Structure formats: C-alpha cells, structure tokens
Amino acid sequence: MRTFGVEEEFLIVDPSTGSPLPLAADLLRLHDPGDPAAAGAHSMLAVELHQEQLEVITRPHSSLGELAAEIMAGRAYADSLARKSGARIAALATSPLAVTPHATSNSRYDALLDKFAVTAREQLTCGCHIHVSVGSDEEGVAILDRIRSWLPPLMALSSNSPFWSGADTGYASFRTQAWNRWSSAGPTEVFGSAQAYHQRVADLSATGVVNNPDFAARLSARHPTVEIRVSDVCLDPRDTVLLAALVRGLVETAGREWKAGQEADMVPAVILRQADWLASRWGMEGQLLHPLTHKPDTARNVIAALHAHVRDALDDAGDAAYVEESLHRIFSDGTGARLQRQAYSRHGRLADVVSDAVVLTHQEPDLYQQSVSPSRTQAPLVPAVT
C-alpha cells in the first residue's frame, strides 16, 4: 500500500472583517506540543511566502481514514492557535478581499521577492499538495509521465478561488492563473527517464531563474514521493480527503501501467495547458478537456473517465466507496468556488464569504467511514451516451 500525505495552505483572517492578517510567525511562536489542543494533531506547521498564510503538513499514512482524521485535527489545531491572536483559519485559495501581503523574511523568500518582483509580492495563494510514495526515481518519473492528462480534472474538483482583489474573476480557480505566473509552473513534456528528468531540472537551474521548479507534478526534493501540486486548498475537508484518494489511485494506476510496459500519452504540454485553463476557468461548471481524447467534454464525463481510470486501484486500497460517495456530493453541492459565490449571493458582502468559509473549513462531518456505500438511487458516474 502506497503511503500518502497532504500539505494544506490556509489564510489567517480577521473573523469580523474577513481581511487576511500577517500573523504566521506569531502563530508558530504559540505552538506548544504539550498544549491539550495539539493532542491528535501531529501535523507540522510551517510559514509560507507571506505572513497571511500558514501551512499544515500531515505525516504519511497508508489508511485514508487515518489521513482524514489528521487533516481535520491539523485544521482544528491551527485554528486554535489563530484564535489566541483574535484570528481564524480559512481554507480559501485566494483572499476574496483586496490585500497587500506581508512577505516572510528569510534568505529563500527574500531571493524570490527580489527576483520575481510583483509576481512574488502578489502571490498570496493557498494550494493543496499531495505526496504519494514511490519506490525509486525511475518509477516516480514514469508515473509523472503517465498522470499528466489526469491532473486538470483534479484542479476542477478542487476549484476554490473565484475572488481576487475584491472582485469575482469569472474563474473557478483564479489561484491557478496567479500561480502560472511563476516561470516554471504548469504541465511538462514526457521525460522518459529519471536521468532525463534530473537533467531537465539541472538545465533549469543553470538558467539562474529557478532552483526547484514549480511543475504541476514533480519528484519531491526531500521525500521518496511524487508531489502533485495542481489543487486549490479545499474549502470542505471532505474534498481534501477525496483528492488524496484520487491522487493515490492515479499514482498506483500509473505505476502499474509502467510495469506492464504501457507507453505514456505523448500529448504536448501546450495542449495540457489548455486543459488547465478550462479547469481553472470553469471548474465543475463547464466543459473540460477529456484526458483520453483531449477534446472538450462535459465535466461529468471527464470525472467519470477519471473515476473509471483509477477504479481498480481504489478498490484495492479500500477507498472506492468513499470516492464515489464524495463525487456524487460534489456534483450535487458544488466545489468551494460555487459555495463561495452562493455565500456572496446570500449576503452581498465579501466579508461574509470569508465568515462562511471559516465555518466550512472547520465543519466536523464524518470524514470517512470504511463501511460507506453509495446510495442505489444516485445517478451512476458514467459518461452520458451521445
């Protein structure tokens, strides 16, 4: 069983005004492993590029149930620290309200700000990165080559950033648009081997622009994992658990394809950029590029194809029922982008969008039940007949 872990980035917000607050360093100083509130929250806390955000990093797990429990515990503990400073933690991939971020000062971030200027200064975005274990760099690169076309649907499922600088952008994931301003962000061509991957990274480093590229998916520089980086932080913690299950399913499926000698899809990265753009623009509310045909299709058909592609791996991991139930819920209720827009429609104030987001970030649903099974009355997740 492959292990997996999650990195979630959150906004630190004023609960009354909704404005982001530059308190990350203060929250880390408040961290006390002996605090009763930390019981069960074994996640690491880390600063990010700006002081208005805080990262929560889980340990690796083999069980989806254990990962789900730590995701919720990590969110709750981070929020408990924020409360001590009169703030809250919100799972928003961009701030609905206009903000001038305060940079975290250290050698790494100082260099980024100096080199990338306004791209770095404005980069107050919160993502969800998922790590899945691999046996070697060779296997890891083979997996990266075989999951490229399946990443845009994950972006659509996680879309949670419709607002930017006080306005509705029209995008479901505007974080993706902001993130793609980094010079090495986005999809890659097929590498073919670990040697070719490492040579590409070395060549990029030799340009003097980047050291650790911001590929949509990459080998981790610190762990024996592949790291999938396309997702917004999810408003609903159940969506984070769903993404983790789907990503592990993708990685396992790709690993099996490699061992069976199945070649990677050689679709050019420029086509995958169009798939990214559609997922960023519409999320689950419009057409996406189908990962097998690379032609426009409905979101339901695309997600059905993803589900079918990883179904065997989900079954083997015991995650199939949770994933199917969760996908039906998203088709019914929508992603974070829809929920944010609905909150704005109800209240008419972006501050209330943030207030509602705080509640949803820390809701305590039954995140995972091993015995859950989809209702027989639900529509099947199969492509529509055309």
Question: How many structural domains can be distinguished in the coordinates?
Answer: 1
Report the sheet-strand fraction.
Answer: 5-15%
Element order: H for helix, E for strand: EHEEHEHHEHHEEHHEEHHEEHHHH
Helix % is: 40-55%
- The CATH class name reads Alpha Beta
Q: Which fold name corresponds to the CATH topology? A: Creatine Kinase, Chain A, domain 2
- Tally the helices: what do you get? 14
CATH architectural label: 2-Layer Sandwich
**Radius of gyration from CA coordinates:** 20 Å
Structural class: alpha+beta
Report the oligomer: single chain
**Major sheet:** 7 strands, antiparallel
| Average of per-residue pLDDT values | 93
Low-confidence stretches: 370-379
Explained architecture:
- By secondary structure, this protein is α+β, with helices and mostly antiparallel strands.
- It has a single domain (4-361), classed as 2-Layer Sandwich (Creatine Kinase, Chain A, domain 2).
- The chain contains 14 helices and 11 strands.
- It has helices at residues 24-30, 64-84, 107-116, 118-121, 137-147, 151-158, 174-179, 194-206, 237-259, 269-282, 299-317, 320-333, 336-347, 350-361, and strands at 4-13, 44-47, 53-57, 88-90, 127-133, 163-164, 167-168, 217-219, 225-232, 288-289, 296-297.
- The strands form 3 sheets. Strands 1, 2, 3, 4, 5, 8 and 9 form a 7-stranded antiparallel β-sheet that branches. A two-stranded antiparallel ribbon has the order 6-7.
- A hairpin with a 2-residue loop joins strand 6 and strand 7.
- Helix 9 (237-259) packs across helix 11 (299-317), helix 11 (299-317) runs antiparallel to helix 12 and helix 13 (336-347) packs across helix 14.
- The longest helix has 23 residues, at 237-259.
- 48% of the residues are buried.
